[in-house]
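Sample pair:
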Amino acid sequence: MEFWFSEFHTPDVQHSVRVNRHLYTAESEYQRIDIFETPEFGKMLVLNGNVMLTERDEFIYDEMITHVPMAVHPNPRNILVIGAGDGGVVKELTRYNGIETIELVELDPMVVDACRTYLPENACRLDDPRVSISYGNALKYVRRFQNKYDIIIVDSNDPFGPSEGLFTKEFYGNCYNALKEDGILVNQQGSPFFSEDAEAMRRSHKRIAETFPISRVYQAHIPTYAAGYWLFGFASKKYHPVDDADFARWTERGLKTKYYTTRLHTGAFCLPAFLEEMLKSVEGNTDADAKH
């Protein structure tokens, strides 16, 4: 008997993956956690029926949400990571010798425990001495700090359920305050293709654009996410994500990547026409050409 996992991207669209084994399932205080072993994508982490990552394509997401801000900020020392309990973003960050502290704030300790056991390739750097892990509500956590972080990376679930508070104007304002005067915020913005996802993306972008003087959107192609097309938000108090990127400095670090390149960094901010129109529609009287 064949076993397939299916995720509904809309009521009329589902993405199905053949499963070899159901390795883990648990119900935490916040969500259902499943880990499947699949022939095509390797191990797959699923939260509340939604694919969070697979071994096959996680490198795309983790590299793009991490190396883009790291190529722009001239001297990132203190980093806050929100979500990302699987450890993939932390793993990428620990490759940078100049980083002094990485604070990881994850809502659900059971996600971290499950990933340590079943996805050790992702979680392998959670015990790096520069890494500290806190469990709880990130909205409450970040509002405690002023002028502390060089970069904040928000690797949250989609803006529904427990993660909804991480897409509010209050949260973005708290992140603005917690960043240093040249700080950068990067977050996942979802997919712009299906209507419900596109509306959530527009709301998030509008709130960020109203909070930060520089706000851009960039893209990546991730096969297991909705429509295979994913967006990230780049917001900064000072730095433009392309004009202020120091690609020579980033290249000198000698980091080997599977997806990110400095040429791709520039190209990721060149958006298709339909997406440009979506962003313009929520940017109001701002300079649309300078906002994406």
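Residues 285-292 have pLDDT under 50 and may be disordered.
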